[in-house]
Amino acid sequence: MKTTGGSDGAKRRAGESAAALVEPGMTVGLGTGSTAAHAIRRLGERVADGLDIEGVPTSFDSRQRARDAGIPLRALEDVDTIDLAIDGADQVADFALVKGGGAAHAREKLVDTAAERFVVVVDSSKQADVLSHPVPVEVLPVAHSVVAGTVRDAGGEPSLRRADRKDGPVVTDNGNLVLDCEFGDIAEPTALARTLSEMPGVVEHGLFVGSADEVHVGTDSGVRVLERE
Ligand SMILES: O=C(CO)[C@H](O)[C@H](O)COP(=O)(O)O
């Protein structure tokens, strides 16, 4: 798993803080990434102590982690309600997020948006006044050149995500490709999200606007909890 952002201790504190919100009987969305992994590990410990929950993974990686942690799982297609989702982010500004550093944002958006309560877990290096992180855009493989052109027309600079340990592109859990799209400062994330969603060939993009209810920010000494009013 790629790791970005701040210290592992800060990520652990954020993940464990969110895991403490889970109550018996809940169906819990399990996010992807190194911070969400701490929440999954902690939930596994609570399950071993008798907590009765079901997890809904957002990726191959989070499913493997949850299995290893001993969390009973349900597939996304078998679930109609999710009580609480815990997921990481690449950048957070005023409850708007850029996600998809692990190329899992399509399923993450399904799970996180469906959840009654969506709790974001980050370390403080992910906080910003204005979003500026490149936006991952998952595209149908045949569409990557066309979408790259459309992104340029919209003022972005796309770059096909390449795999580290393989020649060629990253292929998502859904069999698609990812364009990381640089837009500079994103002053109006809602408008950009709509523009990206309307592009033919786009499966899902990593701008999450209006879905996060809480952000648990891990620091070197504790956790700051931000709640949306
Ligand atoms: O969106 C994601 C995966 O698609 C991750 O949640 C995001 O990349 C943050 O990861 P990490 O906690 O490892 O920094």
UniProtKB/TrEMBL annotation:
Active site: 108
GO cellular component labels: cytosol
Role description: Catalyzes the reversible conversion of ribose-5-phosphate to ribulose 5-phosphate.
The reaction(s) this protein catalyses: aldehydo-D-ribose 5-phosphate = D-ribulose 5-phosphate
Protein name per its UniProtKB record: Ribose-5-phosphate isomerase A
GO BP: D-ribose metabolic process; pentose-phosphate shunt, non-oxidative branch
EC top class named in words: isomerase
Assembly mode: Homotetramer. Homodimer.
Entry keyword set: Isomerase
InterPro entries reported in the protein's UniProt record: NagB/RpiA_transferase-like (IPR037171), Ribose5P_isomerase_typA_subgr (IPR020672), Ribose5P_isomerase_type_A (IPR004788)
Family: Belongs to the ribose 5-phosphate isomerase family.
Positions with a binding annotation for substrate: 32-35, 87-90, 99-102, 126
Gene3D superfamilies reported for this sequence: 3.30.70.260, 3.40.50.1360
Pathway(s) of this molecule: Carbohydrate degradation; pentose phosphate pathway; D-ribose 5-phosphate from D-ribulose 5-phosphate (non-oxidative stage): step 1/1
Keyword Isomerase: yes
Gene Ontology terms, MF aspect: ribose-5-phosphate isomerase activity
HAMAP family: Rib_5P_isom_A
EC number: 5.3.1.6
